[in-house]
Write a structure and sequence with these properties.
Shape of chain A: elongated
Number of strands of chain B: 24
Main location (chain A): membrane
Organism (chain A): Streptomyces sp. Y1
Order of helices and strands of chain A: HHHHHHHHHHHH
Protein name (chain A): Oligopeptide transport system permease protein OppC
Shape of chain B: globular
Strand content of chain B: 15-25%
CATH topology of one domain in chain B: Rossmann fold
Number of strands of chain A: 0
Largest interface: A-B, 44 and 63 residues
Radius of gyration of chain A: 23 Å
Pfam family, one (chain A): BPD_transp_1
Distance between the termini of chain A: 10 Å
Membrane topology (chain A): Multi-pass membrane protein
Distance between the termini of chain B: 37 Å
Oligomer: heterodimer
Largest sheet of chain B: 8 strands, mixed
Strand content of chain A: under 5%
CATH class of one domain in chain B: Alpha Beta
CATH architecture of one domain in chain A: Orthogonal Bundle
Largest sheet of chain A: none
Number of helices of chain B: 24
CATH architecture of one domain in chain B: 3-Layer(aba) Sandwich
CATH superfamily of one domain in chain A: MetI-like
Helix content of chain A: 55-70%
Chain lengths: 299, 696
């Protein structure tokens, strides 16, 4: 018999989803983050409609113009419209960040939880690979590989995923080793449920909160590393633009033509801040030990 | 054993008797929650007299632990508390933490359920004790250490001077709890609050610890508040008992009056639902219908009304106040007078459900045969290069048969190998040594995949903790569908079978879309049972099936299992540490000690005529929920605890703790006990009752 100070009284009637939503909605920062992120997504999708220029259009009558009525964010040295480029760059960065983050989480969850559940030689080998990849200077390899592959943004997604799953996989692995010992996992085993089904149905869903939080924070990390790669010239290649290439181009003229740097930099900041807020909000809402969660029929 | 402790201050009371050391008046405690405030304690009042013990009993969620925490000022900061907690005339409610710290430890001693987490792991126990002394008294380090050693001696730690330098993890569970009691009594408090002090301990150790607690009480003259769910412990230990239900004390009386003449229907029901080790096997366990109410937004009226067989319309309009009833103490029930003077017969309130008794009827063929089973685990040392330093003999040479329609109980204390035995059976792999035959098939032989799957379906498990064994992220439907999908049942058949299963265990079809967290403890265990039955098994393995449940719910689950066994012709292999429950549940029992079966036989034979000295001691250690019997019966209190199974003695595994061995005078027999492992032999030729002892 367990005795807890907090009696089991409040039993949420309809699942836990609504409870999480309620707790999330109570967090103002998180709501702000969601609103901000939604605005950024809308901007990247439909922002182009408000400007007659395409990101590749060069207006030779207006080189390095400050923001004005014709070019909202000004133009760069080649006469490209910075507004159109920012919309396109944001779109490119968002697509890369969200897909890399999602792929990374899926890969990390399957590998980490699978290794932990299967144990034995599989586990040892997987951990060896993870540890090896963690000590390899991945950024350098990333830079070299993506340069070789001519900077197609789809290749960039693959490369960033391949070198980005290890840390999360290691965390998933260590949490899964304790889930492996849970009674319900044992019960499933005795019912004859097959190993991979146990991993997918019983282990990974119970890491849900960790994975969701990591998904949002992974977006932040990917935006930053894509930006860094592109800034160094290894990421997205011209004529394609991303926020990173724009920052790289604008950084040289930060005193003479600050708008070339300020707008993409501002978008990067807004994007990372919004995702961090959402991530924090999700963590608090899903964490059963947080103060506001001190009920919910915990026996 | 001599020790000087400051005597408890005697305060003359106006009434002539001693003044209470602790008075609680109208204590109310509320916790915030998502669904609204949880009213955990709703107006509790009691007095504790010096040298006396007040037992507070109740089921989980009754508010007994919250009351204890409130008295000690250890509630989480989000909780709100009102009322009065008068300790020596001073109100503790509203004191800040600094002031409370001066009171805690000096005037209130505390004993918690889990002795390991109650002791800081990085200090030696001598240091913990001397620190506790020096916080409240001005003592030199040397003097405090000496006191600490004296205290350890007092609570029965052997070689206290040497053991004072040991760390908490170096002690066994029982020894740790002794240290916690030493800490609680160190500063001669006037009140000791013991919250489930023996719940985490084995039954033979429980008896020792209650004795130590008695010693501590005698030395300090403190009043004790003993909080427990175990009515047997209360019957043997408390002077006065308060029964809590839904945050209130519903009945408070002297221990004899309460057990002889319970007056509140809840108390009557509780006493009828508790399994008794001394009752004949055919005494039914009578559950109280329904479940305790949610403490959020309680309806007006008596909180027990919905479960009460004597409910009146008036009961639902206002909550009855506790009023004194002549010869019965304080009772919060509108019909207390009627029950007290016999107009309403207490024993007719809760009629026994039909078919709730153990049915030792026909048994069928043998469905499980285990012989010579052994399992060892390597003991390793070192984190990097693991060296094998020994072997843990978890199970040695275990054998038993299980027939269809039969319940076989494996009983023993923790570490006796009973759970390992279960897992070996469930694994369906060749055992390390010995044979396991399931439904006539030896699991050692290379089995074709379809036969193995068939066997998988034939052996299923119900686990101890229904919360832990049900995946929290799946709905009841998904949980019940899983074993069926695992053996390849198609969708419509799954749907039909799930509905059938819910009916079988008495659950409403409306629960299918709920998550385990939204169910009560009893409902969860019913889901666990339904899941085990999904594949129509022949053997169901039950690992402590009711020990996580409340007494009033437990009886219902035991009765359900008994009914299902009869209807479906199942065979149960049950592991339990609670022998009283087993008496009501099992047809046959095998008692295990250090991986060996020391005695086996029919439940009735084992309880009425135990042969092995360990069985005798184990049975004697179970507290009987009857104060008169509990206080007068002769009791065998074993020394020490079950040792680790790494170094098994050469002879009888029980020899080190055996009370019979100590009385033996025949040197030849003593020699055999020490050097020869006794084999399991029949008590009488041809008898099913077998035991392993040289001396009997």
């Amino acid at each position: 018999m367990t005795t807890s100070v907090i009696p089991s009284a409040a039993r949420p009637a309809a699942g836990s989803g609504r409870l999480y939503l309620r707790r999330f909605a109570r967090n103002r920062g998180a709501l702000l983050g969601v609103a901000l992120f939604a605005l950024l997504v809308l901007f990247s999708a439909f922002g182009g409609l408000f400007s007659p220029y395409a990101p590749t259009d060069a207006d030779f009558t207006a080189l390095t113009q400050p923001p004005g009525a014709a070019h909202y964010f000004g133009t760069n040295q080649g006469g490209n419209d910075v507004y159109a480029q920012a919309v396109h760059g944001l779109q490119r960065s968002l697509v890369i960040a969200v897909s890399v983050s999602a792929l990374t989480i899926v890969l990390a969850a399957l590998i980490g939880a699978g290794a932990a559940y299967l144990g034995g030689r599989v586990e040892k080998l997987t951990l060896a690979v993870i540890h090896f990849l963690l000590v390899v200077p991945s950024f350098l390899i990333l830079a070299l590989v993506s340069h070789r592959l001519a900077g197609d943004w789809r290749v960039l997604i693959v490369v960033l995923t391949v070198f980005g799953w290890m840390t999360t996989a290691r965390v998933v692995w260590s949490l899964s080793t304790s889930l492996r010992e849970r009674d319900y996992v044992l019960a499933a085993e005795f019912m004859g449920v097959r190993p991979w089904r146990i991993v997918v149905r019983h282990i990974i869903p119970n890491l849900g909160s960790l994975l969701v939080v990591n998904l949002t924070l992974g977006v932040v990390a990917t935006v930053l590393s894509e930006t860094a790669l592109s800034f160094l010239g290894f990421g997205v290649q011209t004529p394609d633009v991303s926020l990173g290439t724009m920052l790289a181009d604008g950084s040289g003229t930060i005193t003479s033509a600050p708008w070339l740097f300020v707008f993409p930099a501002g978008l990067v900041v807004l994007l990372t801040v919004s995702m961090t807020l959402v991530g924090d909000g999700l963590r608090d809402a899903l964490d059963p030990t947080s103060v506001s969660a001190a009920s919910g029929g915990a026996r | 054993m001599s020790i000087t402790l400051a005597p408890a201050p005697e305060r003359p009371a106006p009434g002539g008797g001693p003044a209470p050391v602790l008075s609680v008046r109208d204590l109310r405690i509320t916790f915030p929650s998502e669904a609204g405030p949880v009213e955990a304690v709703r107006g509790v009042s009691f007095d504790v007299l010096p040298g006396r013990t007040l037992g507070i009993v109740g089921e989980s969620g009754s508010g007994k632990s919250a009351t204890a925490m409130g008295v000690m000022g250890l509630l989480p900061p989000t909780a709100r508390m009102s009322g009065e907690v008068l300790l020596g005339g001073r109100d503790l409610v509203g004191l800040d933490d600094t002031r409370l710290s001066r009171v805690r430890g000096r005037e209130i001693g505390m004993v918690f359920q889990d002795p390991l987490s109650a002791l800081t792991p990085i200090f030696s126990v001598g240091r913990l004790l001397s620190d506790a002394l020096r916080v409240h008294q001005s003592l030199s380090k040397q003097a405090a250490w000496e006191r600490a050693v004296e205290l350890l001696d007092l609570v029965g730690i052997p070689e206290p001077r040497r053991r004072a330098r040991s760390f908490p993890h170096e002690f066994s569970g029982g020894m740790r709890q002794r240290v916690v009691i030493a800490l609680a009594m160190a500063n001669a408090p006037s009140v000791i609050v013991a919250d489930e002090p023996t719940t985490a301990l084995d039954v033979t150790v429980q008896a020792q610890i209650l004795d130590v607690l008695r010693t501590a009480q005698a030395e300090t003259g403190a009043g004790v508040v003993l909080i427990t769910h175990d009515l047997g412990v209360v019957a043997g230990y408390a002077d006065e008992v308060a029964v809590m239900y839904a945050g209130r004390i519903v009945e408070r009386a002297g221990v004899d009056a309460l057990f002889r003449r319970p007056t509140m229907p809840y108390t009557i029901g509780l006493l009828g639902a508790v399994p008794r080790p001394d009752a004949p096997q055919d005494r039914p366990l009578v559950p109280i219908g329904g479940e305790p109410p949610s403490l959020v937004a309680l309806p007006t009226g008596c909180p027990f009304a919905d479960r009460c067989p004597a409910v009146l319309d008036r009961c639902r309009t206002a909550e009855p106040e506790a009023v004194p009833v002549a010869g019965h103490g304080q009772v919060a029930c509108l019909r207390a007078e009627e029950i007290a003077d016999g107009r309403l017969r207490a024993d007719a309130l809760f009629p026994a459900p039909a078919g709730s008794t153990v049915d030792t009827g026909t048994t069928g063929e043998v469905v499980l045969r285990v012989s010579g089973l052994a399992k060892t685990f390597p003991v390793t040392k070192g984190a990097f290069l693991k060296r094998r330093t020994g072997t843990l003999h978890a199970v040695s040479d275990v054998e038993f048969d299980l027939r269809a329609g039969e319940t076989l109980g494996l009983v023993g204390e923790s570490g006796s190998g009973k759970t390992t035995t279960l897992l070996e059976v469930l694994r369906l792999r060749p055992p390390e040594r010995g044979r396991i035959e399931v439904a006539g098939t030896d699991v050692a032989g290379p089995l074709p995949a379809d036969r193995l799957r068939e066997l998988r379906g034939a052996v299923q498990i119900v686990m101890q903790d229904p919360m832990g064994s049900l995946d929290p992220r799946l709905t009841v439907f998904q949980l019940l569908a899983e074993p069926l999908q695992a053996v390849g049942v198609d969708r419509p058949a799954v749907r039909a079978r799930v509905a059938e299963l819910l009916g079988l265990v008495g659950l409403d079809a409306s629960v299918t879309e709920r998550f385990p967290a939204a169910l009560s403890g009893g409902q969860r265990q019913r889901v666990g049972i339904a899941r085990a039955l999904a594949t129509r098994p022949r053997i169901v393995v039950l690992d402590e099936p009711v020990s996580a449940l409340d007494v009033s719910v437990q009886a219902g689950v035991v009765n359900l299992l008994t009914r299902l066994k009869r209807e479906l012709g199942l065979a149960y292999l049950v592991v339990a540490h609670d022998l009283a429950v087993m008496r009501h549940f099992a047809d046959r029992i095998a008692v295990m000690y250090l991986g060996h079966v020391v005695e086996s036989g029919s439940t009735e034979a084992l309880f009425t005529d135990p042969r092995h000295p360990y069985t005798e001691a184990l049975l004697s250690a179970i507290p009987v929920p009857d104060p008169r019997r509990e206080r007068t019966r002769e009791r065998i209190v074993l020394d020490g605890e079950q040792p680790s199974a790494t170094d098994l003695p050469q002879g009888c595994v029980f020899v080190d703790r055996c009370p019979l061995y100590r009385r033996l005078t025949d040197d030849g027999l003593r020699e055999r006990c020490r050097t020869q492992r006794p084999a399991l032999g029949p008590a009488a030729p041809g008898s099913d009752h077998r035991h392993a002892c040289h001396a009997r």
